[in-house]
């Protein structure tokens, strides 16, 4: 009771809060949802919400409500103004009456509410009669949207052999209608297609299996249609559908099986180790890793001769050769092969066993085989220096076929380029063709070929021949020794330690003995018995002026059989040493110094010789100079009038340095000389042709030479030029060659020589005189 009184008091206070607000006009009716007319009394407050149905199907504009201000005395001086969402476009107001209308059909799914404000304005003054008041127009929902799924098609999978109720997938639909208003958005799911295999939960849309132990091998793919309906699934509700494609996932519930119980394979006896004999395959109804298998050999007489591997790509068992086959030894083998699933699902072990067996029989076929050596390689030893023709060893090969063929032996000469060995083609005995030297090569590697005479099949075997050492080399000095002895040395002093080397290699190691070939009064040798020896002085007081070097023969012997020895000569030079025995010098300069010539004297002598040589060279240069005659012989000093020309001519072609016209015939000068101060009228000056230009002999000679050079393959290269032409066409004398001479000398005229000038007067007299004598 108290709560009701407080509520009434609060409502009363709110209604009396403002008497100047816009409010509904008293007596103005509004329609409720039942269509009844409600009459309201005049109050000092306004509704803050209007309600309007979406998707109105009536004619004209849809009426929303009416606004009225307490300041409106209904004298027509008040104007109502509408502002906010959709004002003027979606909603309009009658400025005189305050009636609000919607200008078009509204969709709640586009916009659920509109916030507007209204005010009253004096038409005359334009002033606001009261502050703007805000209100809301809400759009009431109707069921005008059907449910829609997120996808048109769903893809799902579930394992085969699943129990009833196994989860598959959840599908979800949405309805754009208002969930808070009625059942327009309340959805119910149902299955239209896919029964009796699957079911759907009405409220959640979860799809589950409806049958137990569905087998993928029987049917793998299913198509299920799900419907979502609003209005809680009642009559008249809207609905939407979607398709769910469900695939049964494979599990390992099918064991592998061989299609045949026995397989027959064959392979030639020449098949190499690891080569394939054949393939067998078992079949498994499962897929993927559930169908993976591996093969093994359980037993059989061919278990040691063959192996089986699994091809992971094709899931086949590949039988391969494990050991070399021999048709002559065994021709038929039997194997028991097992196939087993790699991945076994323990949940379905009761459906097993997940393995199978089969018998594989393998037949070995005969082939013509090459000869087979008794060993894979041969190693022989032979002494060096063995005479040619000595036996080294014997190789043996046989024909493994049933019918034995003759075998011939040869040496591959590519492995014996020096032809050191030979082999008997019938029995395979290897012998030497020449003596062997271990110091040159310790091992010889050759290849022997065995060839069947009837089939020409060959087999190769390596033969390694070791050359044993024989003591055939004498020891010698290990190095070149430079031995010195001081002049002031004392008797018994060590001057050199020597050692020796031997190219032979005895089994017990080297043992060298050192001695002198004869008793030496100056030096002696002491054997250290460790393959070294010491050279000692037998006396003191050596003098370089008497003897500057000594030759000491040393005999070196080894201890192998037969004993080898050699004599090596040790050169001992006499040198000047200080008191401590350090060598100072052993050169010839020291001898000169001992003769009394000092270093200063030697330098003075060399300097004098050099000065004399310079004097001789200078004198010779002065003698070669020639005295030049002066250009002008005069007692007066005419140096100011002397002009020197140091330029050299460029030959006959250099016409700028001097004029060579005086050397030519005057007639030629007159006819061919060009002026230098004007441009010539023609590019090339006229050249007189040979008077014998029609000489056929010369033309035939030149043409013949040209044809010979063109057709000669050994002719010079193209950058070599062989020239055949006339001579002297540029001078009045023309060609001096005898090729242009006439057949007889009487055809020649020499009168023109008298016109060539005084230079040719002697020549003119000679030829003109001979011509006059001939005429006489």
Which radius of gyration do the C-alpha atoms yield?
A: 67 Å
Task: Give the amount of beta strand, in percent.
Answer: 25-35%
DSSP E strands, number: 45
Largest sheet: 5 strands, mixed
Approximate helicity band: 10-25%
Indicate the mean pLDDT. 79
The number of helical runs is 6
Give the low-pLDDT segments.
1-46, 590-595, 628-641, 667-692
Query: Could you say which overall geometry the principal axes of the C-alpha atoms support?
Result: extended
Straight-line N-to-C gap: 191 Å
Structural class: mainly beta
Describe the structure.
Its main location: membrane. Residues 69-149, 150-258, 259-373, 374-477, 477-591 form the Cadherin domain. InterPro entries: Cadherin (IPR039808), Cadherin-like_dom (IPR002126), Cadherin-like_sf (IPR015919), Cadherin_CS (IPR020894), Cadherin_Y-type_LIR (IPR000233), Catenin-bd_sf (IPR027397). The chain crosses the membrane at residues 590-622. It contains six helices and 45 strands. A hairpin with a 5-residue loop joins strand 17 (198-200) and strand 18. The radius of gyration is 67 Å and the shape is extended. The strands form 14 sheets. Strands 38, 40, 43, 44 and 45 form a five-stranded mixed β-sheet that branches. It has a four-stranded mixed β-sheet with strand order 4-11-10-7, with no helix packed on it. The chain has a four-stranded mixed β-sheet with strand order 13-20-19-16, with no helix packed on it. The longest helix has 26 residues, at 599-624. By secondary structure, it is mostly beta strands.
